[in-house]
Amino acid sequence: MFAIFRKRSFWIAFASTLVCSLLGKYLSGFPGLNLIGALVIALLIGMLCQISQPLIYSSTEGIGFISNKFLRFGIILLGFRLNLVTLAHSGIKTILLAFVAVSFTIAVVYFFCRLLKVDKELSFLASFGCAICGAAAVMGISPQVKADKDNSVLAVAVVCIMGTVFTLVEVALLKVLPFDSVQFGIMNGASLHEIAHAVAAGEAGGAVALDNAIIMKLSRVLLLAPAALIVGAIYQKRHQKTTDEKQKLPIPWFMLGFLLTSAFGSFGPLSQGVIDQLVALAYIFLGMAMAALGMSVNFKVIIARGRNVFIASFLGSVCLLLLAATSAYLFF
């Protein structure tokens, strides 16, 4: 992993995403833009960076690293702002909603995909990506079913764009829906695809919304490991294959870091000033990850092969948003 730091691609990506992150933070201070939030602005600036293809080509490897590792490091640091004591009362409801949302979305997206004659493997990957945690779920499930690389790439592109679109939709709904901060955050975490998207939308709703969005989203992410186990078992049974080598499950270990920093911030000796600085650093890393995510959206793949799976994922995501919004309003 450390070899990436010696590559020119990483430092070009580091500099460009850092500029996007800082610019997003600066612009979010203006009236109107403060409703969108620094992270969504960084994402949009990253998407605009695709206008400069030489920049994208020269930083591709670094962009991939930043969108993955910096996102997780930012989430770990963001744990310092989450007070576990005040959120303990959310309890079993978030886990139950996560289970319902994931199961419902897998079924609905797969149904729409097959209705629109998307091939089974791509339908499968898109449904899990929309249901659990976006690209991470697609790439985690893909080796369990020996997925075709092109299908994996297309599914990642679809869920990335879906998450971006619905992040903007939910931020726009902030002043329309009769939700308090807790309900808005629950809706974000229960419906958005990537962790970064849930963080971005939750951040637009304020500190309480962000905390609840993270908890709700991580409750869905928790289901990735058991989902991978179940999918792998079903795949092996159907194809009647035996192997002596066990599959490596895509367990999101960064969640442990998030919980540890949350516990340390809640019960440890750190002053509020130090916690605020760590949270500010978390936003810098998350802004960089969001910018990298925007820079890596592959519109060409979507245009070439993805119309039907895009439509199916959009319809499924609308259904998920309706479920999440209704559940947040009625039960939180």
UniProtKB/TrEMBL annotation:
<feature type="transmembrane region" description="Helical">
    <location>
        <begin position="221"/>
        <end position="237"/>
    </location>
</feature>
<keyword id="KW-1003">Cell membrane</keyword>
<feature type="transmembrane region" description="Helical">
    <location>
        <begin position="70"/>
        <end position="89"/>
    </location>
</feature>
<feature type="transmembrane region" description="Helical">
    <location>
        <begin position="34"/>
        <end position="58"/>
    </location>
</feature>
<feature type="transmembrane region" description="Helical">
    <location>
        <begin position="122"/>
        <end position="141"/>
    </location>
</feature>
<feature type="transmembrane region" description="Helical">
    <location>
        <begin position="249"/>
        <end position="268"/>
    </location>
</feature>
<dbReference type="Pfam" id="PF03601">
    <property type="entry name" value="Cons_hypoth698"/>
</dbReference>
<feature type="transmembrane region" description="Helical">
    <location>
        <begin position="153"/>
        <end position="174"/>
    </location>
</feature>
<feature type="transmembrane region" description="Helical">
    <location>
        <begin position="280"/>
        <end position="297"/>
    </location>
</feature>
<feature type="transmembrane region" description="Helical">
    <location>
        <begin position="95"/>
        <end position="113"/>
    </location>
</feature>
<keyword id="KW-0812">Transmembrane</keyword>
<keyword id="KW-0472">Membrane</keyword>
<protein>
    <recommendedName>
        <fullName>Sulfate exporter family transporter</fullName>
    </recommendedName>
</protein>
<dbReference type="InterPro" id="IPR018383">
    <property type="entry name" value="UPF0324_pro"/>
</dbReference>
<feature type="transmembrane region" description="Helical">
    <location>
        <begin position="309"/>
        <end position="331"/>
    </location>
</feature>
<dbReference type="GO" id="GO:0005886">
    <property type="term" value="C:plasma membrane"/>
</dbReference>
<keyword id="KW-1133">Transmembrane helix</keyword>
<comment type="similarity">
    <text>Belongs to the UPF0324 family.</text>
</comment>
